[in-house]
Amino acid sequence: xxAEGLILAGGKSSRMGGRHKGSLMYxxxxxxxxxxxxLQQGTEQIWLSYGCDRHETYxxxxxxxxxxxxxxxxxxxxxxxxxxxxxxxxxxxCDMPFLKIELFRYLWKELEQAESEEYAGAVxxxxxxxxxxxxxYRKRIAGILEKQxxxxxxxxxxxxxxxxxxxxxxSDIREYAEMLRNINTIEEYEELTGRE
Length: 196
Description:
By secondary structure, this protein is α/β, with parallel strands linked by helices. The protein has helices at about 30-40, 75-85, 100-115, 140-150, 155-160, 175-180, 185-195; strands at about 5-10, 25, 30, 45-50, 60-65, 90-95, 120-125, 130, 135-140, 165-170. Strands 1, 4, 5, 6, 7, 8, 9 and 10 form an eight-stranded mixed beta sheet that branches. Helix 2 (about 75-85) packs across helix 4.
């Protein structure tokens, strides 16, 4: 893969009681450390997007701040794609501690089989729900995202609707569907750590 990685860690973590989700621990690693370990297996560079508020630094990552602050995930992806030195970027939200490089390799394979030149990205789908924060995007869409941001439309789904995206249904591949589970609330985190 000619790709760089982007970990989105700029959320306000309001449903986590203000605890930064990327810093949560699972099996002796933070969520961010788990994602770094996976993305290192398929990327040349990893960017860590904190939006505006910086948190921990990691030797394996370059810190990225949003060009357009307070725009949510679309702002983080735009900043990542703008900084990206490769044609493609693997995007991972920091609240997905189960995400593995195998899912991105599967999406990449699907892009190759679908004549990837036509597509702006590949997004997994589970039971009709798209997961645009665990996806692959082409660098050139940064301009489309910027145009949408400056108009005040911050819904990433709306931006994707203006592009040719390969939606890959992984509902029947249990291991991939499980990778897309995110941990958003204190209760979900306590359930996760209580299972250990």
